[in-house]
Structure formats: C-alpha cells, structure tokens
Amino acid sequence: MSKSILIIYTGGTVGMIDSGNGTLLPFDIKNLLVSIPELSKFNFPIESISAFEKPLDSSNIGPDEWKMIGKAVADNYEKYSGFVVLHGSDTMAYTASALSFMFDGLSKPVIFTGSQLPIGLLRSDAKENILTSIELASMHDAKGNAVFPEVCVYFENSLFRANRTIKANAENFDAFMSPNFPALAEVGVHFKLNESLVHKSTTPFSFRDKLSQDVALLKVFPGFSAKVFQSVFDNQYLRGLVLETYGTGNIPQEKHLLAGLNQLAARGVHVLVVTQCIKGRVELGRYATSEDLRKMEVHSGHDITSVAAVTKMMHVMGNYSSKADVDTRLQQSLRGEMTMV
Predict the structure, then answer these.
(1) Interstrand relation of 166-167 and 176-177 (parallel, antiparallel or unpaired)
(2) Are 293 and 249 in contact (CB under 8 A)?
(3) Cα separations (Å) of 194 from 148, 182, 337?
(4) Which of 115, 19, 14 is nearest to 55 (CA)?
(5) Which of 129, 211, 231, 310 is least crowded, fewest Cβ atoms below 10 Å from its Cβ?
(6) Residue in 239, 216, 214, 212 with CA at minimum distance from that of residue 228
(7) Of 187, 140, 196, which Cα lies nearest the Cα of 159?
(8) 243, 290 in Cβ contact below 8 A?
(9) What is the pLDDT along the chain (341 residues), one digit of tens a residue?
(10) Domains of the chain by range and CATH?
(11) Which amino acids are annotated catalytic?
C-alpha cells in the first residue's frame, strides 16, 4: 500500500486557535492545512476527519468515545497506511491504552498526540507533535511494512507504546512518560528507532468494541476507612478490581481489608494487583505484607500501569464471559503492556 495518513480529530488543547478577539476556540479540522501549512510538504496524501460531532475536552472522553475513535480507524483501515489521533492530554493514556487492547491484529500505526499549548499560540508544541507523528506513522521498512504497527503516544521527542504511558506532567512539554518500558523512538536532529522493541501481530485485523465498566480502582493508603472500603467490596455490580498497593504489592495487615478481598474472591470478582510506585513491579510474597495476597485468588499486574490495568480489565471482561478465560488473559501480556518474568 502506498503511504497515506488519516488524521482523526477529537478535541483538546491541541485544537485551539485564536478567534480574533483573544478567545481560544476549537478549530475546524477542515482548516488544518491553514494552521499547519507544512503539511503540504509531505509527498503523500494526508486527510482528516472528526471523530465526534463536536470537539471534546479529553476529561469528557470515556468508553463510548473510545468506541467511536476505534470505529473511525476500523472503518478506514483499508484506505490508509497509518493514523494520527489528535486528543487532549489529560485522558490520552486511557484512550490510547484502551484502543491498544480493542484492536486485534493491528499492522498499521495508530499514533496519539496532542499538545500542552493550543496550536494558535506562538510557542505551541502542537505543530511539532503533529508533524512528527505523521512522519513516524508513515515510516515503512524495505518490505513495505509499517515500522510501528501498534498504538502509540508521541509527545515532545518521544514515541511510547500507548499502554505503557502515563501523563506525568501538567505543565512541561514532555507531559508523558513510560516508566517501565523504553521509548520506541527518540526524535532529535535524527530519529533513533528502537525497532526491536515494537510489538507485532500476525493475526488478521479486527476491532472489538465490547467493554465492561463494572470495574473499580482502589488505592490503599494509611488510615483508610474500613467502612468506606467495605462499601466497595459489597457492591454487587463489581466484577473487576484494580488494587493499587504499596511498593512491590504490599498492603496493611488490616483484618477487614483481607476479609474484604477474600469476600471478592469468593464471589468470583477479578482482582489485579498493581503498584502505586511510578517505576518498578509487583512481586507478591517478597515481603510478609504481600504474602496474604499471594495466597489469594488475585493476579499480579507485574509492571503494568494503573491506566493500562483498568482498560485491559474493561476489555477482557467485555469480551470473555467465563472466569477461567478472563483469568487467563489478565495473566498474559496481550499487547506488550507488562513484562513477564
């Protein structure tokens, strides 16, 4: 397939321009070339569409919108060699992580990007992020295969695997980081491509848009209320819990907490254990304070981020009904989201 890129616009800071009276307003995606005339220098077609009827702040983007963005890619999958999604930075890691699981057999790049300053401002990082994302999405090897056939996030000189990213800075241009996995590419005067790290699939492409939202994220902290936590454990709609623990999987040795987790296990609720630390991994049983978890029917998230843990659980529980199937997939690295050792 010859090179061609589809830009999918969702909203966010990246799409703001000056209305003429000092107010910043979302731009019309049809006028993208006006805002970034450098796009005309690419020697391949670049087209654009809006994912939604009206641009959305990323704080308002959730599972329903993930499906719409994914459908925009799936509907155009055969027409383009790569995709760039313009998205607000606040929930970009959630959307991109979710889509990494929702796409099976992806053989083309889907690169999310945005900016910390609106495109209409003089010092905006928007142009560089968009132009470089397009260039990365258009890269092919000597055999014509995409160099980065997975869902990625590009921001401020770094291309990351989407389901390894977190938003780590609300003010600097390098807003994202991949704490437990190297960048797929580093961009400066030259491109440094880490192609050996790229996750590649050999199955046919498909888009699975089923998601379960019967998931909770629970973070342990000193002095938590037993009554508040118990209200979570007693919730009959809960099917999956991501438990954010201390360090390598440690929790307070509080009887009511252990009893509540055992209560969930008895009901067949899936529990995925992650660490609150930005870097590092869960190692259940390393310390006495994680030994009880090791003996329970819970799953180690290894070095997965909380963002990816939530979106992975939504995807797996949405597409598999039996407990055994869900348990198996929660313990597997499906899209390179965690390191198995």
Answers:
(1) antiparallel
(2) yes
(3) 10, 9, 17
(4) 14
(5) 231
(6) 216
(7) 187
(8) no
(9) 689 999 999 998 888 776 677 776 677 776 666 778 899 999 999 999 999 999 999 999 999 999 999 999 999 999 999 999 999 999 999 999 999 999 999 999 999 999 999 887 888 899 999 999 999 999 999 999 999 999 999 999 999 999 999 999 999 999 999 999 999 999 999 999 999 999 999 899 999 999 999 999 999 999 999 999 999 999 999 999 999 999 999 999 999 999 999 999 999 999 999 999 999 999 999 999 999 899 998 999 999 999 999 999 999 999 999 999 999 999 999 999 999 97
(10) 5-207 (3.40.50.1170), 215-330 (3.40.50.40)
(11) 13
Q: Which two tokens stand for residue 134?
A: 């397009």
* Residue at token pair 């994912």: 51
